[in-house]
Amino acid sequence: MGSFVALFPIVDPVGNIPTFLVLTSENSIKERHHCAKKIAQYTTLFLVVFLLIGGGILRFFGISLEVVRIAGGIVVFHTAWQMMSARPKLTVQENKAAVKKSEEHEDISFMPMTIPLLAGPAAIAATLGLSAQAGHTFSVATLTNFLAVLLAIFILGIVIYLCFRASSWLLLWLGETGIRASSRILGFFIMAVGVQLILNGISDWLRHLSIFTSFNL
């Protein structure tokens, strides 16, 4: 449950509904539903891959888990700041390319919906952080933690699909203003997640250096 709570506001499927509707405005209802399914599948697969192999990549480059938590927290904090200041996630060039894709009926489910909107740097950083927290030893506890994170990612994929499938209804119910307001509120919680990742990383780093032990804390 904690993993889902950490990932959901960062992926923010509700806040990305207006973008999804704009990019699929030329599509039929059936095509829009199919696109929603592909986005959910791509996002789930992308996050699962980083969860499973992220630790190996970090060890290959000699990056400690403490550093990952700190760096991930900074990325998550930056993303939250952008959300709260209502800055667009896509650059002007990316937005033009996405609109062109939608007008030409190209597949927008992977680019830009999955990357960089849903499974962007902040989501990757959060997934790596969850992978670090799950543990790096072969034990029942580590396996249980990884299975819990995997379950959270799959549940998130289902939520993404349901949000985009019901996007027209949600936009009608919440309105664009309501969706933007919800994104800003979620941005605050994302910022808290980022700060917590940074604090956890610093705490683990100091414990690794045995600073607390030397001061008998």
The low-pLDDT segments are none
Q: Would you report the number of β strands?
A: 0
Helix and strand element order: HHHHHHHHHH
**Helical element count?**
10
Largest sheet: number of strands, sense, barrel closure: none
**Shape category:** globular
How many domain modules? 1
Could you estimate the helical fraction of the residues in percent? over 70%
Strand content: under 5%
Mean pLDDT across residues: 78
- CA-CA gap between termini: 31 Å
Task: Tell me the structural class.
Answer: mainly alpha
Radius of gyration: 18 Å
What does this 3D model show about the protein?
By secondary structure, the protein is mainly α. The protein has one domain (2-214). The chain is 82% helix and 0% strand. The chain has ten helices and no strands. It has helices spanning 2-11, 17-23, 29-60, 65-84, 92-103, 109-118, 121-134, 140-165, 167-208, 211-214. Helix 2 (17-23) crosses helix 9 and helix 4 packs antiparallel against helix 7 (121-134). The mean pLDDT is 78.
